[in-house]
Amino acid sequence: MEQIELDDIDLRLLEQLQNDASLSNLELAQRVFTSPPTCLRRVKRLREAGVIEQQVAVLSADTLAPMLGHGLTAIVEISLDRQGAEWLDAFEQRVQGDDAVQQCYRVSPGPDFVLVVHAPDMPQYHALAQRLFTSDANVRNVKAFFSVKRAKFGARLPLSPTLKPPAAG
User: Domains plus CATH for the chain?
Assistant: First the structure.
């Protein structure tokens, strides 16, 4: 991936896409005060440079709950016995391959990892814990916190762009 510099137009594009990635190119161009061809070219450049990793739909857990159940969301602290790069990488690889793990952070100080996991119910969480933590002889300590309410959820990065049209000139 190439290293690119971001200007005000790029920042406005990213801000709008974080709000609603389903905008048409025409609507996106209007919102960032540029032409549709320029908008299309810039978004393509931001994707190719890896600035935009992926576009996803954020589902409403509350709306889906009557059909699928609320399930369990847990924040899990993991401490390993051995913290060498190969051990940390091996643990990361294992959790990245598991769909129940929504987020994985390598942290310091304290535990080595903090995970956000989602399971349909306690037996499924137990199976996840067996699969990812208990079966790994290098996992020293697991501390799980179960969510009773989600007060905020998001994936936005603060960009602080100027959302004013460019000066005529």
Answer: 8-48 (1.10.10.10), 61-146 (3.30.70.920)
